[in-house]
Amino acid sequence: MLRMLALIVLVVFTSNLVADEKTNKVLKDLQGDWKFEKLVTAGEEKPAKNIDNVFFTIKENTMTIKVSDSAGETWTFEINVEKKPTWIDVETKRQKFVGVYELNGDTLKFCWVEFGNRPTEFESTKKNAAELIILKRVKK
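Above: the chain's sequence. Below: its structure in token form.
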């Protein structure tokens, strides 16, 4: 019985280490500056002129959204790399969002909602009231 308990503890501990390593690698890949390419809210795409000067900076588990050279607002986030698509939970000073994200090269997509069920696809409609954000990495 004691061996079985020790084995279970070892398996759980090892699984957590593997998940933490995957999470750390993904977080490392997300770091940097990102520029808005597209923003769709509740199925309505925002004009390019509204997002031309909007940037995200991701550092560790925070993202700062800035318009031009403003100080911006910093949000915190958590990811769950075990879920497909990968889950993200974002907390601002006033709101909490649940969503999914996808990193493909220098393109980062978020799809999240403030109320309701976590999106399972990268789609924003009036019905799901999701925000779809597509960002491009800023090359230095």
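Confidence is low (pLDDT under 50) at residues 4-19.
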